[in-house]
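Researcher: Let's do a round of design. I'm pasting the structure tokens now; please hold your answer until I've finished.
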């Protein structure tokens, strides 16, 4: 029924030019009619999950429900709650009232450590004041068993934003974020994973005498650190021109874990022959072994790859996607609207795979006239996400939004995305083009905010966010979900897109994958009840109120992705029959051990579980019944107190399958 209502509203609005006010009134009337007939209310007016919690109603919300985590020590109803999907749970790790996590590229905000623990970061503010005086970097850590308490303080001692995180050889964790007031970056450190005491001894780094440096992207190889920054170029900041580029992206390196840095400068090959100006957040960095890969992009600019194979000493520069008009100036080029010029949208990510090859992903936009308003609703943007790699050096589609109904829109596109979804704010700070709402994320495309990851088998994963058909807020803007796809052949081909969050009645955006992954694909994302952001889409009418946004962590079993268990969650979805298969068993920790060791097992569906230990000859030395375990992750303890030193194998078994791994006992 709700599908019919949404289609009817859209049809009337498009065909008969009904005003936004009348369309909203019509939707309210139709929703009332649905309730009167005993049907579920349309997604157009579903309460948020938080509202349901506050009302004490744990009913289904589009196939999901809020629950308390088993180990929650909550002071509020949603603290450490789980947003539960058909296949896996999202775990709440924090919150923020400051909801713009990036202008374009996502950056490095999630780490999977070698021991299986995880650290994540995001831009945080715990106050609803629109000045966000406590804004800064928030960090949470998963120790292998549970997440830490939700952070309520930033890591820095000054107001900052846009963090990068990393781990140094001494085990310490760092955050680097910009100081918008004074310029430059602030570096904070905690002595070990999971630490909650942060030192700001390093203080301010990477300042420039000519202007404010903000929007960092930082990665490290051991104690060598590599950073990209850009001049602020905001209304109250004067433009800075260096070597012919206005407000360029600059690079610096530290050899001593951030204590001292080289001078900020242009990367070799990044020059005024191709670039007229830089852009905030339109660049990305990755580093592993002795390789550093940097991509600088931007709307109506080239995509340039800078690769070093000697830890940043020398660089090879390659333009991997060239824009037709170098040194582009608004209004200087008249382009046939029927033959637009295509370019990237700046939301790039870069990844170094296990073979040392570089991968790049991002969205695309087009330029079709002297579009001085820079309005993508006029100039056009692309539904697809694109991928390039050194071993597949042509841009290919790596992901698409999901066609919920299998029918084309009135314009012939496969996707029914409303004008409100891609609309921007006008010069007066309110929705443009005669519409009542704007949900566009800056200058990015329809599919945007890409994030890349690689596993031990060199499978490549990419997440991004895109609007979902027939999922409207009260102003007919589509909600976004996080989407995911993967390649098992280095990017030569890509699997069918799956919906990674499947929320549809909330806005799920800014997903950030861990760069390296294991048997799970790990990421964090931001969720609230309103399409767009308060920072970009509120306007004078407070259309997007400043509300609490939740930061969630998700771990999707790789095998579930390969088996397409997530699927596309279309309107005609058929539930997947889930066997109680043991898809993932972690390596035991500690290993070697003397008395007890722990493993984590993931079950797709509930089952009785047993653990059998055998010696190197295959002889069974112990069998332990673990009882019935429900779907999800379980921490299992193996008792080795009676075992002698040596190599053993542990097998975890359900009625449908079993997984065996090796462990070592050392007395």
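Researcher: That's everything. Go ahead.
Model: Designed sequence:
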């Amino acid at each position: 029924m709700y599908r019919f209502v949404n289609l009817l509203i859209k049809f009337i609005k498009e065909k008969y030019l009904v005003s936004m006010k009348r369309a909203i009134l019509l939707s309210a009337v139709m929703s009332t009619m649905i309730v009167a007939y005993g049907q579920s209310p349309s997604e157009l007016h579903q309460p948020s999950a938080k509202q349901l919690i506050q009302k004490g109603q744990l009913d289904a919300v589009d196939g999901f429900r809020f629950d308390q985590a088993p180990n929650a020590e909550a002071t509020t109803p949603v603290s450490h709650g789980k947003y539960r999907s058909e296949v896996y749970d999202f775990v709440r790790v924090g919150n923020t009232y400051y909801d713009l996590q990036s202008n374009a590229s996502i950056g490095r905000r999630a780490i999977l450590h070698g021991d299986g623990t995880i650290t994540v970061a995001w831009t945080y503010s715990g106050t609803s004041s629109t000045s966000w005086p406590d804004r800064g970097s928030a960090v949470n850590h998963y120790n292998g068993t549970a997440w830490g308490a939700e952070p309520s303080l930033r890591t820095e001692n000054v107001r900052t934003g846009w963090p990068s995180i990393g781990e140094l050889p001494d085990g310490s964790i760092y955050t680097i974020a910009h100081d918008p007031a004074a310029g430059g970056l602030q570096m904070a450190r905690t002595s070990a994973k999971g630490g909650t005491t942060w030192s700001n001894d390093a203080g301010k780094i990477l300042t420039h005498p000519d202007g404010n440096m903000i929007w960092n992207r930082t990665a490290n190889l051991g104690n060598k650190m590599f950073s990209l920054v850009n001049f602020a170029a905001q209304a109250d900041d004067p433009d800075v021109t260096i070597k012919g580029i206005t407000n360029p992206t600059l690079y610096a390196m530290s050899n001593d874990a951030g204590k001292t840095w080289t001078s900020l400068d242009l990367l070799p090959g990044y020059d005024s022959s191709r670039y007229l100006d830089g852009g905030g957040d339109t660049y990305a960095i990755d580093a592993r072994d002795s390789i550093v890969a940097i991509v600088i992009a931007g709307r109506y600019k080239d995509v340039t790859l800078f690769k070093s194979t000697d830890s940043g000493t020398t660089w090879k520069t390659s333009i991997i996607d060239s824009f037709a008009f170098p040194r582009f100036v608004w209004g200087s080029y008249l382009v046939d609207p029927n033959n637009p010029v295509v370019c990237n949208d700046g939301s790039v990510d870069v990844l170094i795979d296990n073979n040392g090859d570089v991968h790049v992903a991002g969205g695309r936009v087009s330029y079709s006239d002297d579009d001085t308003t820079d309005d993508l609703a006029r100039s056009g943007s692309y539904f697809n996400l694109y991928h390039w790699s050194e071993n597949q050096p042509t841009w290919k589609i790596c992901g698409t939004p999901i066609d919920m109904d299998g029918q084309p829109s009135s314009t012939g596109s496969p996707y029914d995305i409303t004008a409100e979804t891609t609309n921007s704010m006008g010069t007066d700070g309110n929705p443009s083009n005669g519409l009542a709402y704007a949900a566009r994320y800056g200058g990015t495309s329809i599919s945007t905010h890409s994030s890349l990851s690689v596993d031990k088998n060199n499978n490549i994963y990419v997440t991004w966010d895109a609007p979902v058909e027939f999922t409207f807020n009260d102003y007919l803007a589509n909600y976004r979900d996080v989407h995911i796809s993967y390649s098992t052949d280095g990017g030569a081909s890509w699997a069918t897109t799956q919906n990674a969050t499947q929320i549809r009645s909330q806005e799920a955006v800014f997903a950030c994958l861990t760069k390296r992954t294991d048997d799970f694909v790990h990421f964090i994302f931001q969720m609230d009840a309103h399409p767009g952001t308060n920072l970009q889409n509120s306007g004078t009418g407070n259309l997007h109120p400043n509300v609490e946004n939740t930061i969630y962590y998700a771990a999707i079993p790789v095998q579930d992705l390969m088996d397409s268990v997530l699927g596309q969650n279309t309107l005609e979805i058929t539930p997947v029959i889930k066997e109680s298969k043991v898809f993932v068993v972690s390596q035991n920790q500690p290993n070697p051990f003397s008395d007890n060791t722990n493993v984590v097992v993931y079950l797709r569906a509930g089952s009785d579980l047993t653990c059998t230990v055998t010696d190197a000859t295959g002889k069974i030395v112990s069998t332990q019944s673990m009882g019935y375990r429900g779907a999800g992750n379980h921490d299992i303890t193996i008792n080795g107190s009676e075992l002698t030193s040596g190599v053993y194998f542990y097998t975890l078994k359900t009625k449908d399958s079993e997984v065996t791994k090796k462990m070592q006992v050392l007395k």
